Amino acid sequence: MESSSSWPENLPSSRIKAIQELTKGQILTNRLRELLDRPKQIESDSKSVNVVVDKILKIRRKIRMKASETKTHVKTKRGCYKRRKNSLTTTKVTSTLIDDGYAWRKYGQKTILNSKHQRNYYRCSHKNEKGCQATKQVQKTNEEPSKYMITYNGFHTCNSLYKAPQIIREPSDIRDNSTLISFETNALIENNKVGTCFPSMKHTPKEDFPYLDRMKQEQVSSSDHYAPWVSMVGLSQIPPEPMSIMSSGIDREDVVSSEVLSSTYSTHGYEIDDINDFDDLIW
DNA sequence: GTGATTTGACCGGA
DNA sequence: TCCGGTCAAATCAC
């Protein structure tokens, strides 16, 4: 763990603490991932697995408490809100408006400067009941009106954990920059291999991994925020949502870019742009 | 009646 | 000051 002397002087101590907790979580997640890679070891050493899971859950609770302390009401009257800076966004261009597996509710429509087509604004239908912060924007592209540019913002905290995306690179088209992403709805995930690039996920029967089930229960039962490292179990470098990108039927020509991901998640896991904005970080 | 969509107003950031 | 993102009342659809 890093000593406080390695932090920039002007970094608030609260932020340092939060980063340290997240780092701990990352380390524990890696440990858990290693264990998941060796199912036989898990059978013989289930105690240590439970210890790791307990630690992760403890850290998560800590950060959640911190988040609730930090969170301020950003909206006090109509139209008064804090625009999110550096929130996780993902943009894709698709020729079809396909169902991404989430329920969206339209909340606005605007004419955008230098754009021939209006932009439509959608938010998760579960925003009110579950406080889900995910939104998306849909706009026809100027060049090809038959194509849509879809921008996803924020995490699905409504039920997102088991809808983690699966990035699949077609072996036959490895040079193609396009990325295919699919989901396994409500499926737990374990490591496997897809192609040569990513560990893949495959449904894991919960009775085989009761501790994961425990994490899932806690994830669902508590306050609907998102655990970066928990979602990263088995995901390797694949970041968590904004990912409601695709469930099925994605076009080969679709282009997906994760703009903020590159700044938010380093190759060693994730980094934190703005720890004050807990809504963007913590489930 | 209930939930979704439309649309003008409002606010923050650049 | 302008523009983009969001709010919320009015309206629509079922």
UniProtKB/TrEMBL annotation:
GTP-binding in keyword set: no
UniProt main location, coarse: nucleus
One of the record's GO cellular component terms: nucleus
Protein name: WRKY domain-containing protein
Family matches, as PROSITE patterns: WRKY
Keywords: DNA-binding, Nucleus, Transcription, Transcription regulation
Chain coiled-coil ranges: none
GO molecular function: DNA-binding transcription factor activity; sequence-specific DNA binding
Subcellular location: Nucleus
The WRKY domain, residue ranges: 93-161
Residues spanning the signal sequence: none
Organism: Deinandra increscens subsp. villosa
Any one Pfam family match given in the protein's UniProt record, by short name: WRKY
